[in-house]
Amino acid sequence: MSFLQPRPGGTYLDGTLGGGGHTALIAAECATGNGVVIGIDQDQEALAAAGNRLARFGGTIRLVHGNFAELDRHLDMLAVTTLDGFILDLGVSSHQLDSGARGFSFQQDAPLDMRMDTGCDGTAADLVNTLPEQELERIIREYGEERWARRIASFIVKARTGQAILTTLQLTDIIKGAIPRAKWEERLHPATRTFQALRIAVNHELERLETGLRAAINRLKPGGRGVVISFHSLEDRIVKHIFREYASGCICPRQLPVCVCGRKPQVRVLTGRPAMATEAEVNHNPRARSAKLRAVEKQ
Ligand SMILES: C[S@@+](CC[C@H](N)C(=O)[O-])C[C@H]1O[C@@H](n2cnc3c(N)ncnc32)[C@H](O)[C@@H]1O
User: Fold this and answer.
1) Does pTM surpass 0.90?
2) Which of 98, 140, 279, 289 has the greatest number of beta carbons closer than 10 A?
3) pLDDT tens digits for 266-294?
4) Which atom belonging to ligand 1 lies closest to the Cα atom of 67?
5) H/E element holding 38?
6) pLDDT tens across 56-87, in order?
7) Which is it for strands 267-269 and 61-65: parallel, antiparallel or unpaired?
8) What spacing in Å lies between the alpha carbon of 151 and ligand 1's midpoint?
C-alpha cells in the first residue's frame, strides 16, 4: 500500500483479486469520494469467495471474471478509461494451492488439472499425456528451473505409453522415480519444480503477464502507480524488463548510435531493487519468502 498510495475517489485495478485482501485494503482508502476498485480474477471460486468478503464495500468494488491479459476489453466494458493505480500479485493463490481438488498440489491426490480458469481448455493432464518429450523437457527446465528436466520428461513419456497420467499422485510418483533419491533436496519436495512448471504452462502465465502489464501501464494516469508482486525469477525478469523499457522510453536497437524512435520515458521506477518481505513477515507467512515487489509511477 505504501507504493500504491491509494487515494479517496481514485480508480484502481486489482488484476489478481484472489481472496480479496489487496482489494479490501485499497477499497478502504478510495471508497470515499466515489472511488472504485476493479477486481479481476480468472478463477470463479476466487470471485465467489472474495465477493462475499468484500460485500461491505458495496458499489466501490466491481468484480470481473476474466484474464488480466484482456484488460483493455474488461475496462472498456466498464467504461473505465484511465487508472490511478494497479496491482498484480502473480501466480497461484493459497486457496488454490490448499484446495487439493484443483490439482495444483503434489501432496493431495486429485485429477491433474491446474487450470486457474476451469472454463479454458488444456489441463496439466493434457500436457503431460500429449506433448512431445522435448517440449515437456523445455517446459520443466525453463519454467521449473529443474536440472533433472530431461530425465523427468523421459520418465513421463515412458510411463504414459502404458497408461495415461491422470492424477497428481501418479505424476508425483513418476517424478520421484526420475530424480535419484540421493539428489533430493532437503527442504524441497522433488515434485515442486515440475508442478510449478506445468502450472505456468497450463495457464500461459508468462505471456499473459507481459500483455496485461503493458495494458495496465498504458492505462495509468500521470502520477498513477503500478505495483507487481512476483514469486518466480522468470516473472520478475519480465516485470523488470518491461518497467525498464517504459522508463527509458527509447526502443531503438542497441546498435544505433542515436535514438531515432523519439519515444520519451513513460514511467519512473520506484524500486531500484525489488522490495522483499522482512524476516518477521516471512516468519508469519512463509509463502512471502520468494515474493519480489516492483513498482513504477507514470510520468
Ligand atoms: C497470489 S493470488 C492473489 C491474492 C490476492 N492478492 C489476495 O489479497 O488475496 C493470485 C490470484 O490471481 C489470479 N490470477 C493469476 N493470474 C491471473 C490472470 N492472468 N488473470 C486473472 N487472474 C489471474 C489467480 O486465479 C489467483 O486467484
Assistant:
1) yes
2) 140
3) 999 999 999 999 999 999 999 899 999 99
4) 20
5) strand 36-41
6) 999 999 999 999 999 999 999 999 999 999 99
7) unpaired
8) 32
